[in-house]
Amino acid sequence: MTELCEQSVTKRLIEVVAANPDALAVASERERLTYAELDLASRRVAAALSERLEGERQVVGVALKRDLPALVAMFGAMRAGHIALVLDPRHPLEAMATAAGVAAIVVDSEFLTPNLACPAWVYTELVSANPGSDVESEAGETARLAYTSGSEGAPKGIAQSHRTVLHSALNLAAGLELGPGGQLWQPSALSFGAAMAWSMAALMSGATLRLGEIADVGLLPLTDGLAQQDRVDLALVPSVFRELVSIATPAQLSGVRNVILGGERLLPTDLEKGWRVAPQIRFINNLGSSEGATVAWAAFRQTTLGPDLPMHPFPDKKLQIVEADGAPTAPGVVGELTVCSRYLSAGYWRRPDLTNAVFSDGPDGTCILRTGDHGWLDDEGRLHFVGRRDDQVKVRGQKVQLGAVETVFAGLAGVREAAVTSAERDGRTSLFAQVVPQATNLDVIELRSRLADVLPPAAIPSSIRIVDRLPTLPNGKLDRRALARAVEISKSPGLASGLEARLLEIWEEVLEHRPIGRDDDFFELGGDSLGAMEMLAEIEFRLGPRLTPSVLVDAATIATLAELIDIPDPTGVPGHATGSRGPSGVRPIFVLYPLSGSALRYRPLAEALGSEVPLQFLEAPWWDGRRSRIRTVEQLATHHLSEIRRLQASGPYMLAGYSFGGLLAFELARQLAAAGQEVALLAVIDISAGAKRGPDEEDEPAGARLRRRRSSSILKLRWRLEQARFGSVRTERWRYVRTLTFTAGKAYQPGPYDGPVVLLRCTQTPGPADHGWSSVALGGVEVHDFECNHREIVRPPWVQEVAELLGQRAAEVRGVVFGGQTR
Q: How far apart are CA 664 and CA 641, in angstroms?
């Protein structure tokens, strides 16, 4: 193993490619590469970087939405002799890129931004270059930079050599018995250090790596995919695993062989819950960091566990527990964990002060790292992990280890997971706990009673909140800073009621923003459609009312939302016209929802039209989970037809829809025409009439390709099971509705329509100029081109032009000039 580590990552990749050229190397929901294809693609990127980038060993940033291209770009940077830094494009990149000294950054085409101090190069252009020769690197040279997650402080850059990367990857693969023919499913973002280590274990051993970011698509695609596999290994952080075993069935996990868990504290109760669902799983507890890579690990098969999970040193890592002054402790005595090895990080990038604080020279060319972790060694040399050094606080003069309190919580019946943090108020330190229940009937008073049986009074949190879930970072790890923010006292001026105060609390948690005033707009504070779904779900969970997303078109402040909640039954019936904008008594434009099933995407359009043009928004009929028999566009149109006729008894009707909403508007027009009603305006916004709809491809929810093969009865059963398990459905409802609209849209084949279609077309959307509508719109197609992409057309500034066009057409139907004058 030592000899294999004394080379570059590039050389090892070439060896694996030569041995397994046609084997599947990496796969995601949308794409896959064999080892030969991965080799060619990374050589192309390397050649492009060598041609464009002057100088040797520069830092190349990789900020791509999808992890498979990110891997290709990372290997390309290494093959060009440079240092790779994989970043998460969902977060601000400027400060981190500047701190790392990034010479250039590889991005998606839509991410080009003038805010970066370095050039940004489009991945698709780089991967189209002619392949060239590799630039060789030495084993001790830096291969990549890893940035800490920032869950407990400011992110720090860490330099990892080719030797360290390979040592971690190859030993992890050996421990997992992973090699050619094996599969490792790794759904965390590659910008997370442990996820990169697990991914490299698969690729450096010739196995297949399967990717899929849970931060974007949730866990349902993962459980669906695992159900079709045999002898597969899974790599997760513990908090994600807890969520997985709470929703997965034994059948879905029956093919899982190993589950490697790392990145945060693992509890014995986690393994016990896992074995209840899948008793065959071998669990591997993986303790490490970007600074030290993996330092200790242990494998567990179904057995009776003790109060913790002792681990053995990772190969070629020597563990020692020391006092604050560096003196070794006796076995059984808690202290700080240090690691001595040749296979550690080279230190903090561009931060010699931080490097000197935690790294020191060891014997025979080794290095010693003070990890900041607390634990103790038993007589067999096994490590018993206690927690982080900064995890210990003093409460009323007594030392309390927060991790130990969390372990007690996790062992209580009815508790799925818990997190404990501390805060100082008026000179006193208090503990605050957030607890996720296994069911909805967890009683806080009973919890306190059970805690008092095993904890001293100082260790019992003064505040225990029952929450739907704990805050996490995009990589799935617990967000400790968000926990700390949740216990801060926030004061917002001008709150008019207790209800507004409760809404304020929810908004601060969802938006992670303060202070917030009662008249501040949710979306102007940074909220988006997913945040809106989370906020509405929290309102339902904590306050009771179930609101559909369209209410936020007109009620996007705490004041207006509180006023709406005070109105009995503010939502009406899901699937009806639940939101409107504009004057009453005037013929509206009926606006059909896109894939999300809600009208939130139309909020910029409503703002652009103002109060002059009335809009009537419709919602998908699945928000309450009960109308599961509606599955096709035709059925949806029939369902909405009665509501439209109730609001407007006769024509002329005006219909508009963006993306999937355009298909639904077209089918509604067909059914209205068949009923003898006039449709004066049918506006279809950037959607194709053909079976292959390019504009919708980028909106496909990951995992939909698997889930749309499920029958409606299975979807309905899953929905009911989730309702029974969680009581109140959270953002899974959003994914459920989105999956059904996507399935309906893909299956829809438009029939002929005698009237005309007004097509608002994005020029960046591929396909014919009429998007195929001429074949079904017998009254002709009037095409209006917009020089933007599919998403931009309903956002400023392009939405202003859309509003102008729709406003003019609506005015013509009503016999007025757009602007209010009578013709």
A: 11
Residue 419: pLDDT above 50? Answer: yes
| The amino acid at 392 | Q
- How many Cβ atoms are within 10 Å of 539's Cβ, its own excluded? 19
Radius of gyration from C-alpha coordinates of the chain: 29
CA–CA separation, 507 and 495 (whole Å): 13
Give the tens place of pLDDT for each residue, 784-818.
Answer: 999 998 888 998 888 989 999 999 999 888 875 54
**Amino acid in the structure at residue 182:** G
How far apart are alpha carbons 269 and 804 in whole angstroms? 59
pLDDT recorded at residue 817? 53
Q: What is the mean pLDDT of residues 118-131?
A: 94
Of the CA atoms within 13 Å of residue 459, those in its CB half-sphere come to 21
Alpha-carbon dihedral sign for residues 5, 196, 102, 128:
positive
Instruction: Compute the distance between CA of residue 250 and CA of residue 458 in angstroms, rounded to an integer.
Output: 41
Residue 63: the pLDDT is: 93
Tokens of 300: 């567990």
Pairwise CA distance, residues 55 & 556, whole Å: 52
For residue 210, count other CB atoms closer than 10 A to its CB: 25
The torsion angle over the Cα atoms of residues 382, 383, 384 and 388, rounded to 10 degrees, is 180
Cα–Cα dist 192/793, whole Å = 33
DSSP string, 740-794: HHHHHHHH-----BSS-EEEEEETTS-S-TTTTGGGTBTT-EEEEEESS-TTGGG
Three-state SS string over 244-306 comes to: HHHHCCHHHHCCEEEEEEECCCCCHHHHHHHHHHCCCCEEEEEEEECCCEEEEEEEECCCCCC
For the entire predicted model, the pTM comes to 0.57
Percent of the chain with pLDDT over 90: 44
Beta strands at 428-437 and 415-425: parallel, antiparallel or unpaired? antiparallel
Name residue 510's amino acid: V
Q: Which H or E element spans position 155?
A: none
Least confident window among 370-374, 433-437, 495-499, 686-690: 495-499
Closest CA to 385 of 290, 440, 311: 311
Question: CA-CA distance, 554 to 534, in Å (whole number)?
Answer: 18
Question: Phi and psi for 67 in degrees, rounded to 5?
Answer: -75, -30
d(CA 365, CA 161): 15
Q: Which one has a higher pLDDT value, 673 or 542?
A: 673
State mean pLDDT over 134-161: 81
* Whether 296 contacts 287, CB under 8 Å: yes
Beta-carbon count within 10 A of 227 CB: 15
CA angle 471, 532, 804 (to 5 degrees): 145
- Number of residues written out for the chain: 823
